[in-house]
Structure formats: C-alpha cells, structure tokens
C-alpha cells in the first residue's frame, strides 16, 4: 500500500465534490492496483432510482470517466441491475463477492444530500482484512470531509445549497455548456430559445403575513416544507438553492422553454395545493430566464427576478419567463433601454 496519509491529503485537498470523487478513485488505484475502482451514486426518487457513475478508473485508464450530470435518468441502469451494489447500499455495510477470478468489495458511501452511493473495488486477489480496514478508514475521512463541505455549502434550515456556492456552480455550468455554445453559434445571442439551462427565482407570496400571523417558527416550517416540495418536484440534476429569507433559486436543465415553464408551473401548483400545517395555503411567484453564453450569475438572476417582480404586480401565484415578457412587450432587454422601469 502507498502512503495512506498522502492519499488522505490528496482526497481532502479539494472543495469540489466531482474532483473529490475522482481523487478518491485515483488514490484507491495507487494504493491497491485493482482491476477497476468506481464510485456510483443512487439518483432519482422513489422506485425509480438509478446508478450514476461519479468516477471510474480501470487499470489501464489514463483518466477517470463519469456519467455527465445531464444524463437522462432513463439512460442510467436501475439499482436492481447491480444487486451486490444494492445490498451494500441497503445494509450500509461492506459487502464482498467473487465471480470467476475477480473479487469485488463494495464500501458504502453515505450522504445526507447527494444520494447514498458505493465505492466498488474489483481486484484479482481478495483484499486482506488490513486493506479493507484501511479503505474503510479512508471512506470515513472522505465522509467526514463531505459533512464539512455540506456545512459550508448548505443552508442550515432547508439543507439546500446556499447563495455562496451559486456563482461557482453557475460559471461551471457555463464552462461545460455545450448546448449554450450551440445556441449562440446558431444565431440569436440574446434570446437563445434552444438554451438548455434555466435560472428560476422562487419567492413565497406574502410570507411576512405568515410570520406575523403564526410566528417565525411556523414560518421556518413553511420554508422547510417548501424545500421538500422543491426536491420532489425537480430532477436530480437540477440545483436548488435558498438565497436567504423566502427566496429560492433553481438552476434547471430543460430542452426548451416549454419544458422549463412546465417544471416551474408544476412546483407552483403543488405548492398552492399543499396544506401547510396551521397556515393552510401558500402561493409562489416564480420568474425564470434562459442562461445565455457569456452570462453572469448576477445578470441572469436579475432577469429572472424582474419576471418575479412582474408576477408580484400582476396578482402573484404565477410563473413568468423573462424572454416571453420581453416578446409580449412587458419588459425590455437590458441593452434595449435607458432605465430599469417596467412597462406596465
Ligand atoms: N420565518 C422566517 N422568516 C424569514 C426568514 N428570512 C426572512 N424572513 C421574513 O420573510 C418576510 C419577507 O417579507 P417581504 O419581503 O415583505 O415579502 P412578502 O411578505 O413575502 O411579500 P411579497 O414578496 O411581496 O409577496 C419578512 O417578514 C422576513 O422577516 C427566515 O429565515 N425565517
């Protein structure tokens, strides 16, 4: 085995989860020289959970591979297709299996927010008890470090990502935004109807009244329950943020404006139909915009926020897309006007 302390330093040297997973498989390969080492996570909800490959390295691979975050759920293998991984996930314990001349060890990777997963190590000779103990200890450090990352990146009340992490995710998304580049190459730089990523701003209507009438604790419960509705409503590859107060943000992947609008509309309807304990009905004003090539986080947020503002001034409990409001003449593009005054 290589130097365990060095491997630990390597794994905990990054604050990016994607990089951490890759570093973990590289460290395991350097330590154990296995046939392959992989990290898989269970994504999706309820009965339709699937395996997403977060990082995989075979003996001859120069670099680790992973499923792109945007992979449609239906293209990923169902959990039941890999019973040994599933048993490890369900029992939360190390599982060993053998097939022909190969031995496989599955170590559970538990995560409160990112979906539980497994570390799979396939070797030609069985891992010794000492090797298993070392890997388990490294997994523990990895887990503790992920907990620290959660603490700094997540909102304590709802567990959603906090505002601090938004800019980084946004810029990362633009960096890998092949679909955005295609949209720009195709022509219209500003409206990009075929953009694949959308930013939605979600604001609870009359939330002050909830606090005033029922107290802050009940107000907090509404925020928590709304975050659960959001988790159930959006897909595993969408990123959900609480920006503070009663304002939430979603970075959504959708193929077209109709799909994006439908996703936000689904949340609006589910929220208005949900019976919040004591409070009863709560409604949302939602604005969204296509993320464009060369966008800044503040620029995209500002457009979606203007659509929220429009919803607030036209009866609340509604969803508006910024681009449609521009087309309909209710708002103007930033470059088209002298001031920020809304046209209504
Ligand atoms: N319970 C609770 N309340 C919060 C929190 N953060 C902000 N608030 C409250 O959220 C309320 C937001 O009120 P406003 O910005 O006036 O908006 P609103 O009452 O929702 O009205 P509209 O947005 O115009 O529909 C304020 O009363 C804040 O005190 C929090 O973490 N918990």
UniProtKB/TrEMBL annotation:
Pfam families: GGDEF (PF00990). GO terms for biological process: cell adhesion involved in single-species biofilm formation; negative regulation of bacterial-type flagellum-dependent cell motility. CDD domains: GGDEF (cd01949). InterPro entries: Diguanylate_Cyclase, GGDEF_dom, Nucleotide_cyclase, Rev_trsase/Diguanyl_cyclase. It is an enzyme of class 2 (transferase). Its EC number is 2.7.7.65. Residues 195-324 form the GGDEF domain. PROSITE patterns: GGDEF (PS50887). It comes from the Bacteria. GO terms for cellular component: plasma membrane. It catalyses: 2 GTP = 3',3'-c-di-GMP + 2 diphosphate. GO terms for molecular function: diguanylate cyclase activity. PANTHER family: DIGUANYLATE CYCLASE DGCM-RELATED, REGULATORY COMPONENTS OF SENSORY TRANSDUCTION SYSTEM. This is diguanylate cyclase. It comes from Inhella crocodyli.
């Amino acid at each position: 085995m290589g130097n365990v302390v060095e491997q630990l330093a390597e794994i905990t040297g990054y604050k990016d989860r994607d990089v951490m997973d890759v570093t973990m498989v590289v460290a395991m390969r350097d330590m154990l020289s296995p046939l392959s080492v992989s990290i898989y996570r269970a994504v999706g909800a309820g009965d339709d959970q699937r395996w997403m490959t977060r990082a995989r390295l075979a003996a001859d691979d120069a670099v680790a591979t992973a499923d792109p975050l945007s992979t449609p759920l239906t293209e990923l293998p169902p959990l039941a297709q890999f019973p040994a991984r599933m048993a490890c996930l369900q029992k939360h314990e190390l599982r060993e299996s053998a097939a022909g001349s190969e031995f496989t060890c599955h170590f559970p990777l538990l995560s409160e927010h990112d979906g539980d997963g497994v570390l799979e190590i396939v070797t030609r000779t069985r891992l010794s008890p000492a090797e298993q103990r070392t890997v388990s200890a490294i997994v523990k450090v990895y887990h503790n470090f992920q907990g620290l990352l959660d603490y700094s990146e997540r909102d304590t009340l709802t567990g959603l990502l906090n505002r601090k992490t938004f800019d980084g995710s946004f810029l990362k998304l633009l960096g890998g935004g092949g679909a955005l580049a295609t949209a720009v190459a195709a022509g219209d730089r500003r409206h990009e109807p075929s953009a694949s990523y959308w930013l939605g701003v979600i604001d609870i209507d009359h939330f002050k009244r909830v606090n005033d009438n029922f107290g802050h604790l009940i107000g907090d419960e509404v925020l928590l329950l709304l975050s659960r509705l959001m988790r159930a409503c959006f897909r595993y590859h969408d990123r959900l943020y609480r920006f503070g107060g009663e304002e939430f943000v979603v970075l959504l992947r959708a193929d077209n404006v109709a799909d994006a609008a439908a996703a936000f509309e689904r949340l609006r309807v589910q929220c208005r139909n949900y019976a919040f304990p004591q409070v009863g009905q709560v409604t949302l004003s939602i604005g969204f915009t296509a993320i464009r090539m060369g966008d800044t986080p503040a620029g995209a947020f500002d457009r979606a926020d203007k659509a929220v503002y429009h919803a607030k001034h036209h009866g609340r409990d509604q969803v508006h897309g910024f681009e449609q409001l521009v087309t309909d003449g209710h708002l103007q593009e930033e470059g088209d006007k002298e001031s920020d005054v809304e046209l209504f």
